[in-house]
Amino acid sequence: MAANGSKNPTRKQLIVSILCKHLSLDHVMKWIEFAESFPADSKACFDVLIKLNEELATKSVLLGNGLRTSEADVIVFSAVHSFVVGLANLDQGKMPHVMRWMDYIQSKEALGDLFGTISLEKPGFEPPLHGAKSAVDSNAKKTVQSTNNAEKSEAPSNLKSGDAKKGDTALQEKKKSVETEAVDKDKTKKAVGDKEAGQEKKKSSETAAVDKDKELSVSLLNIQVGLIRKSWKHPSADSLLVEEIDVGEAKLRQVVSGLAKYCNPDDLTNRRVALIINVKPGKLRDVMSEGLVLCASNEDHTNVEPLLPPEGAKIGERISFSGIDGKPEDVLNPKKKQLEKITPNLFTMTRVCHLQGYTIHDICRAVHIIHS
Question: Does residue 347 contact residue 366 with C-beta atoms inside 8 Å?
Answer without folding.
Answer: yes
